């Protein structure tokens, strides 16, 4: 089956070159390296420019949204104009640990939504325990034409439907393989297959059967297998649709 990972952090993995060299053997069509702050976004662009089958996003994660200046947002905007940059992200709100204040998170999120709108790029949204506030900000600020994906979705079907109704895709990661994750199973079951994106969030959120070890993009196969199982679909058909979804939303 063909594989695609629409959300990974290869720059956070020690043996990234070894993993990248395995992509062809693993039938990996492409991966998207996702930025988490200004410094890391430089690295995502550098990595994407070094490999034909790696694309990237640039952005500032909500946990990195304190002490930002206009220069930081200007830098993201400049980086985003590289031809291998296909989205702004990961951006959003995270109330799980609240490393940064809500005020700073709101400001960073809003500034980067505006960059996406100006450059006509989709969003890669990081939302954790903040779905209502993130939804309201998106509505109030106005959406980019290409919308984007709610990365590593972790809420219920009712919440998923709100974002789907706007036109967002739903990103599904390793937790879908975890035992008794019934809430996420219901989300996958009810979400149209044409609006699901496969992700790993490597090196985090490793799927079963490798849970407890470091994740990597090739393990996306286990996420895709679980999606096919929940949807009662052929694995080859499922993987092909997910590749097409990924190419469509990110214009690859």
Question: Topology of this protein?
Answer:
Blueprint: E1 3-8, H1 16-21, E2 28-33, H2 38-50, E3 54-58, H3 70-79, E4 85-94, H4 102-119, E5 123-128, H5 131-141, E6 148-151, H6 157-166, E7 169-172, H7 182-190, E8 196-198, H8 220-231, H9 235-250
Parallel strand pairs: 1-2, 2-3, 3-4, 4-5, 5-6, 6-7, 7-8
Helix pairs in contact: 2-3, 8-9
Keywords: Hydrolase, Metal-binding
Pfam family, one: TatD_DNase
GO molecular function: hydrolase activity
Structure write-up:
The protein is of the alpha/beta class and 252 residues long. It has one domain: Metal-dependent hydrolases (TIM Barrel, Alpha-Beta Barrel), CATH 3.20.20. It is 42% helix and 17% strand. It contains 9 helices and 8 strands. It has helices spanning 16-21, 38-50, 70-79, 102-119, 131-141, 157-166, 182-190, 220-231, 235-250; strands spanning 3-8, 28-33, 54-58, 85-94, 123-128, 148-151, 169-172, 196-198. Strands 1-2-3-4-5-6-7-8 form an 8-stranded parallel beta sheet. The model has no long low-confidence stretch (mean pLDDT 97). This is TatD family hydrolase.
CATH homology superfamily name: Metal-dependent hydrolases
Taking all Cα atoms into account, the compactness measure Rg is: 17 Å
Label the structural class: alpha/beta
> How much strand?
15-25%
Along the chain, the helix and strand elements come as EHEHEHEHEHEHEHEHH
Q: Number of helix segments?
A: 9
Uncertain spans, ≥5 residues at pLDDT below 50?
A: none
Distance between the termini: 19 Å
Globally, the shape reads: globular
CATH class value: Alpha Beta
What is the annotated CATH architecture? Alpha-Beta Barrel
Let me know the number of strands.
8
pLDDT average, as an integer?
97
Pfam families: TatD_DNase
InterPro entries: DNase_TatD-rel_CS, Metal_Hydrolase, TatD-like, TatD/YcfH-like
GO molecular function, one term: hydrolase activity
Keywords: Hydrolase, Metal-binding
